[in-house]
Amino acid sequence: MATISTTAPVTPLRQRMQHDMMMRGLLPRTQDQYIRHMWRFSAWLGRPPDTATSEDLRNFQIQQHESGASAGTINGAVSALRFFYTVTLRRRDLARGLVATRRPDNVREVLSVEEMARLLEAAPGIKYKAALGVAYGAGLRVSEAAYLKVDDIDSKRMLIRVEQGKGGKDRNAMLSPQR
Which of 17, 81, 104, 145 sits in a 20 to 30 Å window from 173, CA-based? Predict the structure, then answer.
């Protein structure tokens, strides 16, 4: 996939969308993704996105499906377009025709106890063994495990405090009782 530069001159429309996203507290990564999706849509459309019709939006979605875009890419574009047309332009009529795609139900493969034991044996040091064991036992995401601090672990209550996890949310994870 080609790298897309989103550092093009900032139009008043883009500036307005960025302000709308900021005021609604969208995370920086979400904002970047929305701008990237809007850039792709504008490039496909060949004119400013505020001139699009409902038929243009429909044809863009059809083109995404036909080009083999993943459900995540299509749904990301739908979210960006919905935000742009409902919030920035206040044109709910255009956003109504946007259709999210069903994601296939992919069940993540979970390592067996034996596989995890082999992985821990292969870890080069105690620090890595501890990090892998805690991440596996508590079901942490990689980014959550990477930012974990000793103070986040409550060994009396067997809880791990995960701050700023997925979606910027805080949560508690159970600590595995096994050693």
Answer: 104
What confidence score (pLDDT) does residue 29 get? 92
The order of strands in the sheet holding 153-154 is 153-154, 159-162, 171-174
d(CA 137, CA 154): 15
Beta-strand pair 171-174/159-162: antiparallel
For 147-165, the pLDDT digits (tens) are 888 888 888 888 888 887 7
Q: Where are the domains of the chain?
A: 12-95, 113-174
Across the chain, the runs of DSSP E, i.e. the strands, are 153-154, 159-162, 171-174
Residues of the chain with pLDDT under 50: 1-5
Q: Which fold has domain 12-95?
A: DNA polymerase; domain 1 (1.10.150)
Other beta carbons less than 10 A from residue 21's beta carbon: 22
Handedness of CA 102, 33, 54, 83 (dihedral sign): positive
* The pTM of the whole model exceeds 0.85: no
- Tokens linked to 171: 């949560």
Q: Which amino acid is at 67?
A: S
**Owner of token pair 């990237």:** 36
